[in-house]
Amino acid sequence: MTTLKIEELRSKIEGKEILKGVTLEIHGGEIHAIMGPNGTGKSTLASALMGHPKYEVTGGKVTLDNEDLLEMEVDERAQAGLFLAMQYPSEIAGVTNSDFLRSAINARREEGDEISLIRFIREMESKMKGLEMNPEFAHRYLNEGFSGGEKKRNEILQMILLEPKFVILDEVDSGLDIDALRIVANGVNEMRSPDRGFLIITHYQRLLNYITPDFVHVMMQGRIVKSGGPELAHRLEAEGYDWVKEELGITDETVREV
Amino acid sequence: MDIQARVSMNVDDLRAWSSAKDEPRWLIERRVHALELAGTLELPKVEKIKLEKWDIYESGDYKAENAWSGLEDAPEVVRGLVASPVKGGLIVQFNSDVVYTKLSESLAVQGVILTDLHTAAKEHEELVKRYLFQAVKPEEHSLSAAHSALWSGGVFLYVPDGVEVEAPIQAIFLNDTSGVRFAPHILIVAGSNSKISYVDHCISSRDDIKVLHNGVVEVFVGVGSKVQVASVHQLATATTDFTQRRAVVLADGGVEWIVGEMNNGYTASDTKTLLQGNGSISDAKVIAIGSGDQKLSCTTQAQHFGRSSVSQMITRAVMREEATAIINGITKIEKGATHCDGQQTERVLMLSPKARGDANPILLIDEDDVTAGHAASVGQVNAEQIYYLMSRGISRSEAEYLVIFGFLAPVISEIPLEGVRSHLQDVVEKKLGRS
Ligand SMILES: Nc1ncnc2c1ncn2[C@@H]1O[C@H](COP(=O)(O)OP(=O)(O)OP(=O)(O)O)[C@@H](O)[C@H]1O
Ligand SMILES: [Mg+2]
Fold first, then answer.
1. Atom 2 of ligand 1 has which residue's CA nearest to it?
2. All domains of chain A in start order, with CATH
3. What pLDDT digit, counting tens, does each position of A80-102 carry?
4. Is the ipTM of this complex over 0.90?
């Protein structure tokens, strides 16, 4: 069974420690949601797991199916089955979406066993249809000039085509209109399987109405400070974070220099 | 220091050679006049480049070639570039001579002319006499003069008024011998309300071939006409390329330049449009890749005389290893050229810490009622983009290649002939050190 195991992960950016010991274990079939106020380290966790070059890991351990993730290059992590739908996907002019997707699919295949053009187009088009994306997005340059919501849909399209073992969604619901939220959530739900784990970073219950999480965690000050079931997200939605802070004696929830 | 171009012929030899080519008297006299100038004028001034230190002094010896009866015996490189059957027209220059010319019957019937320039000077004397050297003048500097005196082979492409040609006319200039004269002159004349697309390829057969390519392209765009000129240069490391391209565009006419500077050797090119008529348009797209210890100077220019004329210039250069690029863009708007718009962008992507790049956007504006803009940047491959691509499982080298190719795509995708476009892609891969 797929397991992502994060132990006491610490990470720095530009000399500033953001993650201060995150511990979390996620198994195949489970959906974990991470919530938390702005600037508390949620995206940093996602970036550190994916291997963003700006985020220096200063401590802790992460394994994906017992393989040391932190030792791997970014592309090796992806090849090992990790996928991150980014909060702010890059725009790359001159590279069409379909050329990019095909390169990404072929990167997972042996030389000589590349996906045929026809099969690729058929698959891409059918998945795009499922996400109600205009076929023209295949020929547009990667994310260039895409609206916020279009970028998010494109992230989900990549997730579906690449069939990762472990998925991190960083605010995939931000910028989505009501219909798109449902469509994207359906896309995610269709990917749910006993051997695929999810870590969903979100601010709102509305996404979790569609995708019911098994566990909900609250992040503050670069740590997971509270965990619970789906009811925790409901309470946060209704009452905000003050009660959590009070309960834990936190006055400033953001990441602070100590 | 002697900074004139050295020419390998004296006046008597030149007269004899030109006569042997059966050139008309006026042309012989123009050559002789230019030869004298070559001995007195100075080298051109090229921004931040010490041209006098380049191998640009030897014009090379004329090397006669026998005409080819067909393309069956043409070298592999030529056959690989040519779409068969030839749809519009094809002309091939091998070293100093044009060896093959073919123009489709339907175009010939409409009055389209495609020949080498010597033949054109005889058979279409009035036209050639009227336009030759009117855009790029021998008086400009010693290399221009040397070219005007010694050019050989070359292309004359003429499209009569009102004729629109869809299939591109292709030209190939192939050099396989060191020390020979390789100085084609391309003269394109498009009558009023006509349309033509011309694609050429300048290529050395081996990387150790040492010549000077001193080439000139003159384009005359008639009233209301559209001319597209695409050119890929892929000359040897030991070869120096000095190329001047210039278009004169009359009212409501438009020229589109698509240029790929893929040489392995020192290269200086200047691609300029004179927007003479009201409502004239110029669009120039240039890509360049530098590798090894190459030095590259790519200049694009637009000079606006006509009212409401519009120019756009885009240059993108990728510099590897220890290559140096000086990218200049000059937009000049003359007094009286009201309601003009001139835009330019120069971007240089540096792939190695030893590569050098310099982008110089220049706006010279003598009229108030205009819009003009420029953007220039010199930078490395964006690390965020590489991270994004790698996060999808794409290797670092593949990711870099995608980003670089994407950077060059706006020009590559505009090349009108499929064969030349895919060849350019291969050349780009090779220049980037892949495959
Ligand atoms: N490149 C950077 N340079 C400096 N500080 C950074 C950088 N990236 C992130 N940080 C800081 O790290 C902290 C955590 O940022 P992070 O993006 O992880 O927050 P988040 O929890 O995802 O917030 P949000 O909910 O707003 O997306 C913030 O204070 C942020 O300003
Ligand atoms: Mg975030």
1. A13
2. 3-90+163-248 (3.40.50.300)
3. 999 999 999 999 999 999 999 99
4. yes
